[in-house]
């Protein structure tokens, strides 16, 4: 399996926050932001793997500042670490007041995607080579996030088994 740089997966997407995207505070709906994040992360994962992908988890979305109607949001996503068939994607969202040019880090998120083969089964993905200090930091802390994901999944499985809920309803 070959190795790729993080730059090869880097995906940037910009959008204008319209009235239909906002809540009664005049700021973007969290769910709208989440959809943008999932979409840009999926594109980054497909660019890296050159395969169809599925979202395996969304570890976190940290909303750091509101985004007002009429501002733009720019999402940047790239593969921050890889497993055998999975890819962790880091997404950062920057909002911009288009009248003043002021930019603010608005949100960050970590998502995990799994690459699929022609039959829909998980398939191997290339490893990554970080190129910047930010990418190196993210890769260095990826094992801790992976450990937290496994722990969270184990806790969820315990919870579901206690409720006698079938996993595949």
Account of the 3D structure:
- The chain has 169 residues and is α+β, with helices and mostly antiparallel strands.
- The chain has one domain: Thiol Ester Dehydrase, Chain A, CATH 3.10.129.10.
- The strands form 2 sheets. The protein has a 5-stranded antiparallel beta sheet, with helices on both faces. Strands 1-7 form a two-stranded parallel ribbon.
- β4 and β5 form a beta hairpin.
- The longest helix is centred in the C-terminal third of the chain and has 22 residues.
- The protein is globular, with a radius of gyration of 17 Å.
- It starts with a strand and ends in a 6-residue tail after the last helix.
- The model has no long low-confidence stretch (mean pLDDT 93).
- GO terms for molecular function: long-chain fatty acyl-CoA hydrolase activity.
- Belongs to the acyl coenzyme A hydrolase family.
- This is Acyl-CoA hydrolase.
- It holds the Pfam family 4HBT.
- One of its GO terms (biological process) is acyl-CoA metabolic process.
What distinguishing features does this structure have?
single chain; 169 residues; alpha+beta; Thiol Ester Dehydrase, Chain A; five-stranded antiparallel beta sheet; two-stranded parallel sheet; 3 helices; 7 strands; globular; HotDog_dom_sf; HOTDOG_ACOT; hydrolase; Acyl-CoA hydrolase; Cytosol_ACT
Question: What's a quick, concise take on this entry?
Answer:
The chain has 169 residues and is of the alpha+beta class. 30% of the residues lie in helices and 34% in strands.
């Amino acid at each position: 399996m070959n190795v790729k740089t993080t730059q090869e997966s880097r995906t940037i997407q910009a959008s204008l926050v319209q009235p239909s995207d906002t809540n009664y505070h005049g700021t973007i709906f969290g769910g709208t932001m989440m959809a943008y994040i999932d979409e840009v992360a999926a594109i980054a994962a497909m660019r890296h793997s050159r395969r169809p992908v599925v979202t395996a988890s969304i570890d976190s979305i940290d909303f750091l500042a509101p985004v007002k109607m009429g501002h733009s949001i720019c999402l940047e996503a790239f593969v921050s670490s890889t497993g055998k068939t999975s890819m962790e994607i880091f997404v950062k969202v920057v909002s911009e007041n288009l009248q003043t040019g002021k930019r603010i880090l608005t949100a960050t998120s970590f998502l995990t995607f799994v690459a699929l083969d022609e039959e829909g089964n998980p398939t191997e993905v290339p490893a990554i080579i970080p190129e910047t200090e930010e990418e190196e930091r993210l890769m260095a802390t990826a094992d801790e996030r992976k450990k937290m994901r496994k722990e969270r999944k184990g806790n969820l499985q315990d919870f579901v088994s206690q409720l006698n809920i079938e996993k595949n309803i």
